[in-house]
Each structure stands twice: as structure tokens, then as C-alpha cells.
Amino acid sequence: MEQERTNRNCPLWGTETCARLNMRACRGCPAEDKDARECNDIREDVDTFYRLLPEEGIAALFTDEMCTLCKGEQKGKRESWGLFDMGHADPRERKKKLSLFRSKTYGFVAPLQFGCCRDCRRRYQLLGLLPTLTTIVILGGTLLIVAQEPVAQSLRNVWRGLPLVVMALAAGISYILGKALVKVLRDRFNQRTYMDLKDHPMVQRMASLGWESILDGKYPQPVFTRKRLTYGVGTAEPEAPEEKISSDGENLD
Ligand SMILES: [Zn+2]
Asked: Are residues 224 and 239 in the same domain?
């Protein structure tokens, strides 16, 4: 990929940190117009971030041509990415005093980008839509029936408030049914797709290193996109093996 990193005066130009920052251009880079000392701080930040990541890195999630959310041997072809952020406290920060009012903050955020096939994406999207769909069908259907004057009339003949009670019942039923359907379908989809990201090997590996999901909730959903994040820390593709050998060589000098 052709990148415009043209500022050779930058203390970080051409270094591993520059590659890891993975900015499209020097303009807009965190190191833009920074002096050597500030650039050193940036380098330390980036190094700390990489030390916290699994040794093998997170790039395989987005470079793999096949789906990384499929379970089992047979994987679908990647056609989008599911974005999912995990956060980690800054290990260099001294522990703050316990405060009831301190909201949770993360020193580092790792953008996980799960390469995803069409089927896995659709399973996630269907589950997300299901509660709304159930409500529309059941509540809408009930309303259509109750709104018919003969039906409304016969309900009112029993008791004046009965049409309202029927609608309230329909709302309750659609809520409960929506939840039940989601559960049944999630269990079914879960045989083919990692529907609970906490079960995914990479998320478990990250969790064992102190990373956690930034999203609350039992089943945090990835955000699907056709174009993955291609710049910023954590988005760089791993170096080709030859480059690695030469940079290792330089380090030995
Ligand atoms: Zn898949």
C-alpha cells in the first residue's frame, strides 16, 4: 500500500513505531510537529500497547481471507469485517484511590476486526432485528384486528377497557416471545458462528492478558463494515518475513 509518509525530519520516520502507528500520511499523525522527547513518549505508548497484545498480534483476524467468526473446519469466505473494541488499563499508571464516582477508563483500546462471511454477518443482524420484528408483527397484527369496528365493539360489550387490555397483553407477549426467539436462534446459530464473542479464541486470549470488552451487556455485538480500518495503531499488517530479518539484523548491530 502506497503511503505518504514524507517527513524525514520526524524523529520517528522510518522506525518500527512509524510502521506501528500505521498512519496514511505524516499530516494528522500523532507525531506531527512533535519534538524528540514527545516522540519518545509516543514510542513508549506504542511499545506498551504492543507488549499488552498477544505475541502473535491481532492482524490475522483481518488479513485472513476466510471468515474468523465461523466455527469448525469449514469457513465461509470473508466479505466484511465485524469491529469490536477491547480496552486495557495503562499498566504504568499508579492505582488510583477507589472512588465510587470514577467511571471506567481504558489506557489502551485495541480495535479487533473480525473478518466475517455473509452467513455469520446475517446471523448477527437477524438476531439484532428479531425483537423489533416480533413486536411489529404481533403488536401490528393485534392492532389491525382490534381496530376492526365489529371486533372492538364486541370487546367493549364485555368491558369498556378490554381493547386496551388486549393491546397491552399483545405488547407483553411480543416482548417475551422476542426474547425467547432470540435465545432459541442464538443457540442454533451458535453451532456455526461465534455468536458470543467471549467464546472466541482471540477474545479469550486477550481476556487472559487483561483486556475486556468496552461494550457492556451479555452479548456485545460487533459493528459490521465492508471496509475495514486501515490506519491507526493496531491496524497494520504484519511485516513481510524478509523485512523482519533485516530489522532484526539492525537491532543486533
Ligand atoms: Zn462465517
From this structure: yes
User: What pLDDT sits at residue 240?
Assistant: 61
Please tell me the distance between residue 108's alpha carbon and the centre of ligand 1 in angstroms.
Answer: 28
Residue 161 Cα to ligand 1 midpoint, Å, equals: 50
The pLDDT of residue 3 is 55
Joined grid coordinates for residue 86: 477491547
- Kindly give the distance from the C-alpha atom of residue 75 to the centroid of ligand 1, in angstroms, as a whole number: 6
115 Cα to the center of ligand 1, angstroms = 8
Q: How far is the CA of 93 from the centre of ligand 1 (A)?
A: 39
Per the structure, the count of domains in the chain is: 2
- Whether 30 and 146 map to the same domain: the answer is no
Q: How far is the CA of 184 from the centre of ligand 1 (A)?
A: 19
- Are 88 and 156 contained in the same domain? no
Domain hosting 235: range is 16-122+197-243
Residue 247 CB coordination number (10 Å): 13
User: Comparing C-alpha atoms, which of 55, 4, 48, 13 is closest to residue 34?
Assistant: 13
What are the DSSP calls for 39-102, one per residue? HHHHHHHHHHHHHHS-TT-STHHHH-SB-SSB-SS--PBP-EEEEEEEEE--TTSPPPPP-TTP
| Same-domain status, 22 and 130 | no
In a domain, 150, yes or no: yes
CA 26 to ligand 1 center in whole angstroms: 36
Does residue 88 lie within any of the structural domains? Answer: yes
Splitting the chain (253 residues) into consecutive groups of 10 residues, what average pLDDT does each group show? Answer: 77 94 92 94 95 95 97 95 95 67 78 97 95 94 93 92 94 95 96 96 96 89 94 86 47 41
